[in-house]
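[Meeting: bench + compute handoff]

Bench side (C.D.) handed over the final construct sequence. Compute side (W.E.) agreed to return the predicted structure before the next meeting so the bench team could plan truncations. Sequence as handed over:
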Amino acid sequence: MVEAVAMAHAWELQHDPAVVVIGEDVGANGGVFRATQGLQQRFGAERVQDTPLAEAAIAGVAIGMAAQGLKPIAEIQFMGFLYPALDQIINHMSRMRHRTRGRLSCPIVMRMPHGGGIHAPEHHSESVETLLCHVPGLRVVCPSSPARAYGLLLAAIRDPDPVMFLEPTRLYRASRQEVPDDGRALPLDRAFVLREGADVTIVSWGAMIAETLQAAAELVAAGVDAEVIDLASLSPIDATTILDSVAKTGRLVIVQEAARNVGVGAEVAAIVAEDGLYDLLAPIRRVAGYDTVMPLYRLEREYIPSVRRIVDAVRAVMVDSR
């Protein structure tokens, strides 16, 4: 995935002179995860700029660049470092089109590693996407594979409004996939059906897609045919794909790494409860992180939903519907 992210950067830098990259260590060092490796050497320091360790300044400078015709891709090194930038993101970036009655927009991509699983210290393993999803004017995207990271990042850079692009940290080097460097973007605001099934719908996103697909494979032995949906776009949510799937399966399990309280999974559940209630054969189940800070690495795997927890939730839904 990290190579796919770098490849998408390079494509847009080569084909659109308005694109610039800014962030801490994105230039000379190629980023803390090397997602921008080699870009400064290839495109120059004016287009790939290192910044001070100042997240509020990174977001503010990106807004100024966007208002003057550039298309900045701004990196926040870890999602837990996002909080100082929220002032700029919420008060200015998300409101620019509304505030100027359409005269100005903010074609900005804010990239940030998302979630735990790499034995990192505090503030390096946050999954607080719900903070961003609640803000009108922002798109929030979270890919789960190299191909989707490439195609969705291209779409995010080309979008005329701000996109928060959450990159699952533990997927950066977790698997390999052939990704053609052809500049083809994937659609924003769409969910992806990764596995078709008839018995239960499992909705997840980001790094949790890996455990969700493993759980679906295990459930085959128990005679349960699970349909797996990668939400991908956390805001706005593709309600149609979810509702169509639940209409077919009659059951819904939602899997998220983030804390359970007021998470994106709750919004997915509300959509189905409002518009697909009569299709349900059993109550909706959520499998989530806990309502506490992500623990340090000895307990990290106890926090992140496991394949066993997902399988158990699906089996409970199957029992509930008998």
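W.E. noted at the follow-up: Residues 2-15 form the longest helix (14 residues). C.D. will use this when planning the next construct.
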